[in-house]
Amino acid sequence: VQLQASGGGLVQAGGSLELSCVGSGRSFSSDAMGWIRQAPGKEREYVAVISWRGGAIDYLDSVKGRFTISRDNAKNTVYLRMNNLKPEDTAVYYCAADVSPPRLRIGVADYWGQGTQVTVSS
């Protein structure tokens, strides 16, 4: 069972990136999925969480209006579209899956991807 994240990179402030996370080995269509990031020297924090059908979505306050999480259960994939990126968004971004959205919001999950680096230059 694996979550494979991709799409990170180096971008200038104000730019955009889209992260993808593909699940394999099992279906994640019944799980909530989310993106959690960790910057150097900082605690892990959830960025966005989406319920299993996509009907309930939560965002970290600092990314509201800039980031959009979505999922395609047929492709076993969750996405994070990031617009108007800021230097403070620089972090390793992890995708995660869990039956419980509240667990994802506190950075706890049964399944984790390997992380993808996002670096925003000023």
- SSE string, helix = H, strand = E? EEEEEEEEEHEE
- Rounded Rg: 13 Å
Mean pLDDT: 96
Largest sheet: 7 strands, mixed
Envelope shape: globular
DSSP E strands, number:
11
| N- and C-termini, Cα separation | 38 Å
Q: How much helix, percentage-wise, in residues?
A: under 10%
- Tell me the fraction of residues in β-strands, as a range: over 45%
Put simply, the count of helices is 1
Judged by helices, strands and strand pairing, the structural class is mainly beta
Summarize the topology:
Blueprint (H helix, E strand, L loop, with lengths): L1 E5 L2 E4 L4 E8 L7 E7 L6 E6 L6 E3 L7 E6 L4 E6 L8 E8 L2 H5 L5 E2 L3 E6 L1
Structure description:
By secondary structure, the chain is mainly beta. Helices cover 4% and strands 50% of the residues. The protein is built from one helix and eleven strands. The protein has one helix spanning 101-105, and strands spanning 2-6, 9-12, 17-24, 32-38, 45-50, 57-59, 67-72, 77-82, 91-98, 111-112, 116-121. The strands form two sheets. Strands 2, 4, 5, 6, 9, 10 and 11 form a seven-stranded mixed β-sheet that branches. A four-stranded antiparallel β-sheet has the order 1-3-8-7, with no helix packed on it. A hairpin with a 6-residue loop joins strand 5 and strand 6. It is globular.
Name the features.
122 residues, seven-stranded mixed sheet, four-stranded antiparallel sheet, 1 helix, 11 strands, 4% helix
